[in-house]
Amino acid sequence: MKWLISGCLLISLVGCGGGSDDDSGNNDGGGTPPASLQAPDVEVGDNLISWNHQTITISAQITVYAEGETQYLWQIIDGPLVTLSGTDTDTVSIDASSLQQDADLVLELTVTDSTGKSSQDSLSIRLNDQITAAVNIGDPALIDGLQDQVITRALNIIQQYRVDNAAMLASVYQGNDIVYDSGQYSQMIRLNQAVHRYPQVKSVELIRGNGGRIFAAASDKSGQRNAAFGTDIISSMQQGNNLAYQQNFKRLLAWLLDKDLSQEQAEDVRLFLMAGNTVNRITSWISTQYPNWSVTLCDDEATQASCLQAGSLIITGSSGGLSEQGVSSLLMSAQLQGTPLLYMHLHSWNSVPLTQTVLELMDFSMQGPGGPGNFFSPDKASWSNYTEMLTAKPSLTAEHLWLSLFESQDPDFNLARCADQCDALFDEQYRPALSHIRAQLQSLDTQHLDMFEQEDHRLYKLLTLLGDSYRSRIKYPMDVTTTNEMDFLEAMFADNTVYHYRNINPVPSDLGNFSRSDFSHITPTDATISLSSKKGFRSVGVYALPGQTVTVSRTDSNDVRAWVFINTQRAGSTHEFDNQGYNRAKYLQSTQIEIQAGQSIKFTSPYGGPMQVKFDKGDIDTELKFSHIGLHPYWREGMDGAQFMQQLTLAKFDWAELATPHFEVHSRLDKMQTTMSHEPLWDTPEKMGQAIMTHVHNYPHVLAGFKGPFIDEVSEITDFAIAQGWDIDNLDTVKHMNADQPTCGSGCSGNPYDAGWSFSPTGHGDIHELGHGLEKGRLRFDGHEGHSSTNPYSYYTKSRAYKESGKLPSCQGLSIEDEFEVLQASMRQADPFKYMQDAKLTSWSNGMATMLQMMVAAQQHGALEDGWHLLARLHILLREFERAKANEDAWLAKRASLGFSGYSLNAAKTISNNDFLLIAMSYSTRLDYRDLYQMWGLATTKSAQDQLAGFSYTSIPRQVYVYAPGDYCLGLDLQAVAVDGNQTWPLD
Predict the structure, then answer these.
(1) How far is CA 632 from CA 544, 587, 825, in A?
(2) Tens-digit pLDDT profile for residues 203-232
(3) How confident is the model at residue 1 (pLDDT cuts 50, 70, 90)?
(4) Would residue 193 count as lying in a domain?
């Protein structure tokens, strides 16, 4: 403390002002008493701005002019309550960590000296809430170090949400039981992401069945109240049903009207979007229960607006011919004046488009038209009180489950067991909860909704930012048995909380084996892409850079729906529970966001990747403008092939794509480099594109019996089908391969199929995986393993490539020698057929060998020039067979042209594979396969044999067609050997 004493005062004590000769006894020195001492000087400093979670320390600059004790008093004279420390000293500390929103306060210091003189100074402090700032702009960097507080706040929102829900239900149900049965012919109500608009809109499950279905819901939209039922509950009660719920329903009416109801009160009820008996039943019930209420049907379009406006309660259905826009306008006007709405569902277990229009105004929805509602496994409610109903499944269970886990840091399951089989608790609760959270965020994406530009959505803003924060500290690869359990769980949470429709989405430091994270060497650019639509999706040749916002604008006005998304990987290709298997994010493929003609949308992905567009129909021109994107190695017909090859060498991106009209390769860069270098026949993208169209698109689909663009018309397939009156299905879509890491095995079928190998247009694995999408279980002999019907497409493609380009095929080297020996041995038995059955030649290779024999027989006996084409005829016949089974009339009209004239519809529906194949093969070749089936031990019924006997076809003799391993791909003109028990293997 600095003490200052006036110099004049000191001097006066030693004679300042002159002495007097007066020697009187006056001892006052004869001088004037000293002037009053000055009050303290106080400076507390300039106004401050600070984060409220940070401790603020302020030291005042003070000058005191009086000796003795000085008193200090710091106090808040304006603003919220915060904690002050050191209030009786010259230095004060402020703890405002209890605040959860921005605030201003004024802090004052009063200093009082020993004489009682005092001075004050004050400063204003702006206390900003850092979490609120993060929520307002969507920047997870602002919650770094505050994750625990984020979790606490999110849990507090959930707790308050549950309290408010309970309060709403208490006002309706009080202590009563809840018994309700709407029956099979009813629907359920969906709460449209109710928590997102909370607390501005408070929605509650009014009736939840014991099986979990929601049959009624209520909402309070800032004082305007609504309720909706999945059936016409009023008509039900009027007819004597659900009377156990009647008193509860009457209290619901009181809640809707926000008043206590008695029979003496008068209300003006308006009915809307209903007619006939529904109106009569509702009017009758109201008249009985509330004699003084008036009921008016607003069905005159000319006066509907004024009719509805005059009501104190609107009971609405969703029937009639009004437009969705008209209904929305009328009901929204009623809501704006505070009129409560009550929805009665009038469409049994079904719904109509207008249903959604009405319910959306209440913040509800329902299954679309055709949805089964409560029809299958019907649910109903029987609860002793509303608390029991709430406790059975509390609101926001999924969100609460994971937040509580992160709060406690103490899992109630053993995650390491997922290396073998996850704990039931984790599988049945935690994983579905993550899926629920992910679905909520995907829904926001699809709505084109940037929640960080909205005032509400607070819970999911916090969840998203928490996931962002966890994502920023992931280090790949992780192993479920050795990685810290909470680190692993945080990564899983981060995977499921990716949200794209936003402006800030930081790039994690580690993207695992998916991609580099640093793209500072890439200058973003714009591109306009013109693309003809195809059913399915197509690549567009631009790259969304991680963490950077891409804007997509659709500039065409054509009639086709389009959805834009990033990446093509399937979630299953990340095997997070395998040994070191969590090597990248699981959900690399973004939400598919629809873009309509003339519309613009945005993406910000933490991962980035090649962009794609999906269509609902084909051959319609579209144009999309992409802003702020990268240009990765990409080739499509008409583009510069040399530039593509140069881009592969420069390796500025980790992904490359090669697209043809009907097949696209999405490949890791290193795998695409291998694809383009390992075969001289197609070492340029132009050659590769042609090879893909020939070997991957054309040949397999010829064998599968399709027609369409770039699919050859083979006369012995198409002409035969036309002669029978069979339709050949058209195929005009795009198929895809991800050269990356497989979802299953070393390669996994689907569209896209994914594999760990580099793509090759004649690679067995590639055509094999395509074959999984073409094969039909019906075209497989009974009891034979699945892969027995997968490989013909690969072998046929290789066979055609050999015939037309001289490329020697590699066809797995399957041999027929073992089957040859078993066949010959069977003829030396008393019962050859039983011997063959007991031999169990049912493996995939046995099955392929057996099917191949049938094809060779067709060629050898002149039914086909190329025996492989038997499979194409079978595919076409099978499609017609399945269509004919639709109903009795269709079957009777078609069965004779399919070879099944002796079969009833019921018999056709239950026919075995062997019976079907025996008849179908024979009918498709005009050959009798019965002896051949008998020789191979393929059991058929008398019905099938009798059907075939009636055709009087030429019988195929008991022969086996032999070949050296794999030579079947060189052609099917193979040596025939009699199966008589005497022949020996003829090939060296």
Answers:
(1) 10, 21, 61
(2) 999 999 999 999 999 999 999 999 999 999
(3) very low
(4) yes
**Structure tokens given for 426:** 């984790």
Report the alpha-carbon distance of residue 95 to residue 82 in Å, rounded: 6
The number of angstroms, rounded, from the C-alpha of 63 to the middle of its chain's C-alpha atoms is 67
The verdict on residue 23 lying in a domain is no
Domain that holds residue 880: 801-978
Distance CA 738, CA 745 (A): 14
CB 564 within 8 A of CB 611: yes
Residues 414 and 370 in one domain: no
> DSSP string covering 552-569, please?
EEE----S--EEEEE---
Kindly state whether residues 419 and 487 are assigned to the same domain. yes
CATH of the domain at 94: 2.60.40.10
Q: Is 51 domain-assigned? A: yes
Hunting for tokens 């594999």 — which residue is that? 755
Q: What is the pLDDT of residue 804?
A: 86
Read off the pLDDT of residues 111-137 as tens digits, 9 standing for 90 and up: 999 999 999 999 999 999 999 999 999
Concatenating the DSSP letter of every residue in 919-937 gives HHHHHHHTEE-HHHHHHTT
Same domain, 213 and 260: yes
Q: pLDDT tens across 687-712, in order?
A: 999 999 999 999 999 999 999 999 99
**Whose structure tokens read 């690679």?**
763
Last residue within a domain, chosen from 384, 412, 432: 384
Shared domain for 811 and 921, answered yes or no, is yes
- Identify whether residues 699 and 640 lie together within a single domain: yes
Average pLDDT taken over every residue of the chain: 94
Average pLDDT over residues 672-677: 98
Which residue type, as a one-letter code, is found at position 806? G
What secondary structure does DSSP assign to 308-367, as a single string? HHT-SEEEE---SS--HHHHHHHHHHHHHTT--EEEE--STT---HHHHHHHHTTTEE-P
Q: Are residues 793 and 819 located together in one domain of the fold?
A: no
Calculated CA dihedral for residues 210, 215, 219, 224, nearest 10 degrees: -140
List the CATH number of the domain containing 571: 2.60.120.1250
**How many Cα atoms occupy the beta-carbon half-sphere of 498 within 13 Å?**
26
Cα-based distances in Å from 125 to 84, 134, 142, 309, 773: 14, 20, 20, 50, 67
**pLDDT bracket for residue 26 (50, 70, 90):** very low
- Residue 624 contacts residue 552 (beta carbons within 8 Å): yes
Tokens found for residue 409:
């840091």
805 and 786 in a single domain? The answer is: no
What distance in Å separates the CA atoms of residue 937 and residue 836, rounded to the nearest whole number? 5
**640 and 543 inside one domain:** yes
Asked if pLDDT for residue 826 goes beyond 50, the answer is yes
The count of structural domains within the chain is 5
Q: Are strands 56-59 and 91-95 parallel, antiparallel or unpaired?
A: antiparallel
DSSP track, 157-195: HHHHHHHHHHHHHHHHHTT--EEE---SS----EE-SGG
